[in-house]
Amino acid sequence: MYPAYVVAWLVSVAILVTSGRGVGVVDLIPLTLLQSWVPTESVYFAANAVFWSLSCEAFFYLVFPYLYRWMSQWKVRKLLIVGALLVSLVLSVSVAVSLTGTTEFGIWVVGFFPPTRLCEFVLGMILALLIRREASFAVPLWVGSFVALAGYAAANVVDDPYSRVIVTLVPFCLLIWSAAQADLNQRPSVLRAKPLVTLGIWSYSFYLIHTQAMTGAFEAMDRIGINTQELSDWWLFAAVAASFICAVAAAAALHYFVEAPLEKRLRGRRRSRSDG
User: Fold this and answer.
1) pLDDT above 70 covers what percent of the chain?
2) Cα–Cα distance, 163 to 161 (Å, whole number)
3) CB 112 within 8 A of CB 36
4) Does residue 11 contact residue 254 with C-beta atoms inside 8 Å?
5) What are the Acyltransferase domain coordinates in residue numbering (predicted)?
6) 155 Cβ neighbours under 8 A, 6+ residues apart
7) Alpha helical stretches, state H, 101-165
8) What angle do CA 212, 218, 219 make, to 5 degrees?
9) I want to staple 130 with a disulfide (CB 3.0 to 4.6 A). Which of 66, 135, 229, 244 is the partner?
10) Which residues contact 159 (CB under 8 A, 6 or more apart)?
């Protein structure tokens, strides 16, 4: 994870320098993966706005072994109760922030503070454990997909802080549950198509590099005389599609030349140490 992240950070810094926006000390903080612990937008969005989530994920990976050792002993009933309590906790935090005013601090608590976002991670662990317990709560994939799309649409119309997490939390859980069931039962699904599986493999690299690649594509268009601010709707759509293709290509390169080989090397070192 970290090598690809560092490369994406270097690209972001290079874009900041070449664009004339400059780089400050705050842009070094993402290298520590601690940026989301600071309730200031200029810090948790430093270098590149998408990097904030890696700070949360590093925290999740740190606590995962301890959580799993504890949670793996739970029965289905306890897993369901804790899952419901976690959803209620996220809703309560959203309501509390809404009632006290959607300040920068409140938005940070709901959307970026690692312990708050840990609720979603633990819910994911609960889903995985329920699947392993063979919990019999069948949800067709089309239902999970429809509910998830509805939640995504709702997130675009409701106000902060509800749009951050709570309106998509349960719908996305249903989608994950239904997709996992379909996969385990070997049901035919478009999600299992080889191109989509490949894109899924590239998805981490895509997340890291997509803003830089798309920004670079638009800047390149401007340099060759294409004023993207004045394009018609169809031409603007074509420009966005072209920048998206550039982002996918950049993600593939980051995956094959950085993420995959370095991950293989690191895993190889771990095996050799364990064998020794």
Assistant:
1) 97
2) 6
3) yes
4) no
5) 4-249
6) 163, 167, 168
7) 104-111, 114-132, 141-155
8) 85
9) 135
10) 98, 102
Say which range, 63-72, 100-109, 141-150, has the weakest mean pLDDT: 100-109
Name 65's Cβ contacts closer than 8 Å, sequence gap at least 6.
none
pTM of the shown model = 0.88
- Helices assigned H by DSSP within 133-259: 141-155, 166-184, 194-223, 233-254
Q: Whole-angstrom Cα distance, residue 250 to residue 127? A: 32
Each residue's pLDDT tens digit, 43-61: 999 999 999 999 999 999 9
Which residues are within 8 A (CB) of 240 and not within 5 positions of it... i.e. 6 or more apart? Answer: 214
Q: Report which of 83, 84, 105 is spatially closest to residue 160, judged by C-alpha positions.
A: 105
8 Å CB contact between 212 and 15: yes
